[in-house]
Specification:
This protein has 53 residues and is mostly helical. It is 60% helix and 0% strand.
Length: 53
């Protein structure tokens, strides 16, 4: 698999694809954890917004 970020690939997808490759993604596991937390927060905000509408 190519080590470069693909033109149609966002940074999150690149990090997730290369999380286990040492030296390619600095703190890959930490970044993936942050992406997961952000996704959960975004989902929670959507749920709360829908409840208030």
């Amino acid at each position: 698999m190519d080590r470069l970020q693909q033109p149609d690939e966002n940074r999150e997808a690149f990090v997730r694809r290369n999380v286990g490759r040492p030296g390619l993604v600095a703190n890959g596991p930490t970044l993936v954890d942050l992406y997961d937390r952000i996704a959960k927060l975004e989902q929670r905000v959507e749920e709360l917004s829908a409840r208030n509408d």
